[in-house]
Amino acid sequence: MPQFIVRTPDQLPSLLQAFRKEAGLTQEEVALRLGVSQQTYSAMERNADRVGAARLLRLFNIFGVEVALGKSLQASAAASSSADKPAW
Question: How many CA atoms lie within 13 A of 69 on its CB side?
């Protein structure tokens, strides 16, 4: 599966929809697995920037998507150029 870099919350709705479709699931099937109504899941998919981290991780698990966190190349370059300063 290809890797996706998510930099802003507004990228999440289209990613959730794409992952759901790639997994061959309907909104109703995902809602059933989450224990919510189809309407609630539809609202979550449209407003994914308001969904909590725990629920997002659960959705990614349902879709078979692995989440990996790492530093961006820009952050790594900035950190190495100022080795005496902590990178926060």
Answer: 1
Q: Which of 58, 68, 65 is nearest to 22 (CA)?
A: 65
Tell me the per-residue pLDDT of 13-24, one tens digit each, with 9 for 90 and over.
Answer: 999 999 999 999
How far apart are alpha carbons 64 and 57 in whole angstroms? 10
The values of phi and psi at residue 85, to 5°, are -110, 135
CA dihedral 20, 37, 58, 4 (to 10 degrees): 30
Angle at Cα 79 formed by Cα 76 and Cα 85, nearest 5°?
160
The pTM is what? Answer: 0.74
Tokens of 26: 């309907």
Rounded to 5°, angle at Cα 23 from 25 and 43: 50
